[in-house]
Amino acid sequence: MLGKLILLFTVVPLAELYILLKVAEATSALTTFLIVIITGVVGAYLAKSEGKAIISKIKYELSCGHMPAENLIDGLCVLVGGAFLITPGIITDIAGFSLVIPFTRVLYKNFIRIKFNKMLDKGNINFWRY
Do residues 23 and 35 lie in contact, with contact meaning Cβ atoms separated by under 8 Å? Predict the structure, then answer.
């Protein structure tokens, strides 16, 4: 796991830097800078509005006495997507927008649900009820 994290935190920033330099070479440094700023601002706004909507859905589900499992997974996706969107880079922006936008988020939700179910089956996750 540590090796994967080290790889993630070294390879992804290098790939991001390479792509940003290529975009700057093809357009201009100002254009690249504006792309980074605009995607960050738009992404932060989108993540904030999606997050507020999800929080209100979670509150409603809880007030009805239901466990908001789907909305919690949505919240996780929006949280991670928002973090990706404020990170400068093209790869992280694509991943971030796909996590924040509801109709593309479905792919991630299915993957997360499958991973959680596998972890439950193996006994890697324990739940306690009070």
Answer: yes
The whole-angstrom separation of Cα 113 and Cα 126 is: 16
What Rg value do the Cα atoms of the chain yield, rounded?
Answer: 18
Q: 20 and 88 in contact (C-beta within 8 Å)? A: yes
- Cα separation, 38 vs 18, in Å, equals 19
44-92, pLDDT tens digit by residue?
999 999 999 999 999 999 999 888 888 999 999 999 999 999 888 899 9
Contacts 24+ apart (CB under 8 A), 39-42: 39/85, 39/93, 39/97, 40/85, 40/86, 40/88
Write the CB contacts of 58 (distance below 8 Å, at least 6 apart in sequence).
68, 71, 72, 75
Q: Round to whole Å and give the CA distance between 26 and 87.
A: 22
State phi, psi for 8 to the nearest 5 degrees: -60, -45
Q: How crowded is the C-beta side of 104, counted as CA atoms within 13 Å? A: 10
Instruction: State whether residue 82 is helix, strand or coil.
Output: helix
